[in-house]
Write a structure and sequence with these properties.
Chain lengths: 178, 205
């Protein structure tokens, strides 16, 4: 699996990631808008075969996808690292109710971050998710994104676990501030 | 000093309905739905009126989950009727969920908020609705197409029609007096409830 178009050098992994999620029968895409997930969000909005669900807060997405599971559907929660903190008590559904969860988290507040407001939650994402029983994987390089998310899909939807994939700032780049 | 004070702008009549009487009248055939219930009274009530039916996922935690959980279920099962039954306190914890539901507008979802104006589980403190916050107006402002407030038995036929016919996203604010819900005991194991519900709804776990 290549992550760049070899002739143009363009980043191709976000589109490959969308196709991977669709092949895994993910039909509910839930998100609070974030630049790191722009391609996935736009693809879901343009796809007549999925529900593209804009949330007001990320915890809604945890509950939404538990409901999807009750109805036999699969979903993914797309959020920024700050959103992980908004989900904590709602993850009781997953830890206590054994609802599967797949979430992709675009990271802030780590490698190369220049905005001091992003560090508190960015640095806390892994420990707080792990404290709520979520298995945390990370993707640092374009060449590994698809493999890591495929592993998470298997762990969530076959294994029945709650799994987060951190799309790190090494992968997506740090936002520039003047 | 400041403390929460009763709002005058949204003055509603004092509630007169007894939840034990009116909920079974409003939801005439509870077995026909797939239902998600917020914690405490409404979870106890739906368990009671379905005789602990497997079509009810009744929570005792994850406060604020009920509305969007029901939305995910309604989207996943577009051919089934989905009912969300929750209380004012549970709904107040995630008002944004009403806006999210309105934007998705699932035609098979009916949300019933049993509004007693109090936190019945924690010492009966006033909730925001008990002090005048009007959840039906919030539902309307969110864009939910059918919104009904039930204050008295006179409002009940329209509520029954909405629940029975259910041909569009609807929000019903059921205003009831303080007091104990129907309670016959219920399953308190969230993972067992999930398995039981999926077996019922999907035919497999």
């Amino acid at each position: 699996m290549t992550s760049h178009d070899v002739t143009t050098g363009a980043v191709t992994w976000p589109d490959e990631l969308y196709d991977l999620l669709r092949r895994a029968n993910v039909t509910q895409f839930a998100y609070v808008p974030d630049a790191g997930h722009r391609v996935l969000i736009d693809r879901s909005l343009a796809d007549p075969d999925v529900y593209s669900v804009a949330l007001t807060t990320e915890e809604e997405g945890v509950a939404l996808l538990a409901g999807a599971d009750l109805g036999g559907a699969r979903g993914v929660l797309l959020m920024q690292s700050s959103g992980a903190g908004n989900c904590i008590n709602m993850l009781s559904l997953n830890k206590g109710g054994h609802f599967p969860l797949l979430t992709l988290i675009s990271m802030r507040g780590e490698f190369g971050e220049g905005n001091p407001w992003q560090f508190p939650m960015g640095q806390a994402v892994r420990p707080v998710l792990e404290a709520m029983g979520v298995i945390v994987l990370s993707a640092n390089h374009p060449d590994e994104v698809i493999d890591v998310v495929q592993a998470a899909i298997t762990m969530a939807f076959q294994g029945g676990e709650a799994v987060a994939v951190l799309l790190t700032q090494r992968l997506i780049g740090a936002k520039k501030f003047a | 000093m400041a403390r929460p004070t009763k709002l005058q702008i949204n003055a509603l009549p004092d509630p007169v309905l007894d939840r034990r009487d009116v909920i079974p009248l409003l939801i005439e055939n509870p077995h026909e739905f797939l239902a998600v219930c917020g914690l405490a009274g409404s979870a106890q009530e739906l368990t009671a009126i379905t005789n602990d039916g497997p079509n009810v996922y009744a929570m005792a935690g994850a406060m604020g989950a009920a509305v969007t959980m029901a939305l995910g279920l309604a989207l996943a099962q577009p051919k089934r009727r989905v009912l969300c039954v929750t209380g004012d306190g549970e709904l107040l914890m995630n008002l944004g969920g009403l806006a999210t539901c309105a934007l998705m507008n699932p035609p098979n979802l009916t949300i019933i908020c049993v509004d007693n104006g109090h936190y019945g589980e924690t010492g009966n403190q006033d909730s925001h609705t008990g002090l005048g916050v009007n959840l039906a107006k919030i539902a309307e402002g969110s864009g939910i197409p059918a919104v009904l407030t039930i204050n008295t038995m006179d409002d009940l036929p329209e509520g029954r029609r909405l629940v029975r016919e259910g041909n569009g996203l609807a929000f019903i604010l059921l205003r009831v007096k303080e007091g104990k819900p129907l309670n016959t005991g219920r399953l308190m194991q969230p993972a067992v409830g999930r398995t039981r519900f999926r077996q019922h709804a999907l035919g497999h776990v």
